[in-house]
Amino acid sequence: NAIECFESAAARVADPLDRVTVQNNIGSCAMHLGDVQRAALAFAEMEELSDRLSGDYPRRCRLVTSSYTGAICRARGDYQRAVERYRQALNLALGTDDGRSIANQLGNLGTAYEQAGDRVKAMQFLNACMAYSERTGYWAGIRYAYWHIHRLLSDSGHLSEARQFIETYTSRYPELRNLR
Prior knowledge:
The chain is mainly α. 80% of the residues lie in helices and 0% in strands. The chain is built from 9 helices and no strands.
């Protein structure tokens, strides 16, 4: 399988950037397959290797590892730690001026706060994700925020507000009508 191929490659590469890339591939595949333990090990090694990189690579590498580690923590039910890692990722994204990463981390924080039971903070971050995504034209962020905000409003019993939200955003973005 792909992970075994990447692990085989990891044993043969010496360049730190290549090693980071291989660990990212292993961790990403493991997450996709639901093997959070294997993913956690790969991203921990990737984070450790990031200090050997130069230029902007260490920051970008830590952004990726912080974000994935946040997802791993969420999968394990450790929502407080997930929030911490997503906040680290957001701070790193702000330093890179990468609009997509910023929007992604705002959305990640929203869902982590929701899972932690803090719907107020969840809505704040999801609304920030929507606003930032709209400002930068980031369609994936708009869809993500739209779906999560609508679900959060509906699940909270704010049905009138949920309907108004749908009307507002589907008039602005008709393609959202098919997303529910």
